[in-house]
Specification:
alpha+beta, 4 strands, 24% strand, elongated
């Protein structure tokens, strides 16, 4: 939810803060020794330095050794996303 960072900070919710938490939690999936590779390739968001950002996006690449592992880790990612979304609204 965008809001002016100086005039109405309580009216906003930072999508970048939420995305930062999400990326932090996703980083624990990355485990090259086990053949699970997760890379956050790009992050973007916000509109101005004095506006609480209502938008943020990360592009993520997940690679595993098998299709079954991919499905399992993809579900883990979805669960993490759901938990972060609950905390940040």
């Amino acid at each position: 939810v965008e809001a002016h960072a100086g005039r109405q900070p309580e009216a906003g919710k930072s999508a970048i803060f939420a995305l930062g938490e999400l990326v932090y939690h996703l980083s624990f999936i990355h485990n090259p020794k086990e053949g699970v590779l997760l890379n956050v390739g790009t992050i973007e968001g916000g509109t101005a330095i004095n506006v609480i950002p209502g938008f943020a996006r990360a592009k993520v690449n997940l690679r595993t050794s098998t299709d079954l592992e991919y499905q399992e880790y993809h579900q883990i990612m979805k669960d993490i996303i759901s938990e972060v979304m609950k905390r940040h609204g």
